[in-house]
Design goal:
This protein is an alpha+beta fold. It contains 13 helices and eleven strands. Strand 9 and strand 10 (342-350) form a beta hairpin. Bound molecules: adenosine-5'-diphosphate and magnesium ion (MG).
Length: 391
Amino acid sequence: MTAGSTAPRTFADVYGRPPDGTWRAPGRVNLIGEFTDYNEGFVLPTTLPFATRASVARRDDDLVRVASAQYPDGTSAATEAVRVSALRPGTVTGWPAYALGVFWSLHTAGCALGGADVLVDSEVPIGAGLSSSAALECSVGLAVRELFGLDLSLEQLALAAQRAENEFVGVPCGIMDQMASLLCVPGHALLLDARSLDHRQVPFDLERSGLVLMVLDTRVRHALGDSAYGDRRSACERAAALLGVRALRDVRPEDLGAALTRLDDPVLARRVRHVVTEGARVFEVARLLEASRLEEVGPVLTDGHRSLRDDYEVSCAELDTAVDAALRAGALGARMVGGGFGGSAIALVRSGATGAVGEAVRAAFAAAGFSAPRIFVAAPAAAVAANGHPR
Ligand code: ADP
Ligand code: MG
């Protein structure tokens, strides 16, 4: 392609033939349960009406090519063909690692795979904490499972996708994103035990309650985020070892006070306090959802934000500004989501107040000298349709 020509968008544009099929996996937003998954605790994600679609055709050889409508590189439509059996962690960089990692993960787990041509196209905002990475892995995983007749449950596929991200891409994420992308059902949140992978659908009918979930994407990502994830994770492991438990999930909320007295390091104590109180908030929100008391979820989300800001110390000025402005403008609750140091916050808002909340957050960003945030309604689907697309 020459510079200035339009980006390839359809499978036929890229590969000159139709795909065998198209498989869809959505992004997710985690209602509550931040940094509990790698502590083997509980999370409560819900699905988004935005998804990634993988169009895939089998090949007669064992070569794989991948292309993305979001990453047309201007010179070639698809990556160089790679042999499935030649894939090794560290040999592929950039976004293709997310797609090729799924082939690597399934192949090294003993699945018989052939070659394929892959095109992904996504509506999930990328890098906003809504899990575009898992949506990509899972859409490719679903395609590969069906095209090669793999006998894998959705849980096994989620684990294979997580392994692709952990070992092939090199991002130490927990299991929540992949499980949410594959198992969340519209109108529900998924109460997921990250240790056993047991899960239960909890009704989450925003529409009936006249509420929406807004995403306040700060569009910043501070460099600190990369090292902080591993730092917090190892702090949790250290604390669990000091407390003599397998993971912090095993510290019950009623035992938190006693546990904290056994930790000399005040930083470690704060990290533990976040994880344990956050675990309790997951059950509190699940209980409120089951009782259809959705408005009362708001303050629990806001408590979660304070815990992330003060105890886990993963917030930043932009996230705090977004949360504070949303609350002042009438949001029922708001909190940062995802890895922190940027990315998005979510706000639970009465349907009629989305305009005021959006305005308030924009004004607060302008006043603080931050670049403009991206703000959109993420759920329910009907409200999204009325408010337009996030991109
Ligand atoms: P998030 O999952 O919160 O969106 P991540 O940093 O975990 O953010 O994942 C984003 C990365 O995933 C992108 O930088 C890119 O490498 C890859 N990715 C996500 N969606 C796509 C897509 N549609 N096409 C190509 N790569 C994608
Ligand atoms: Mg991700």
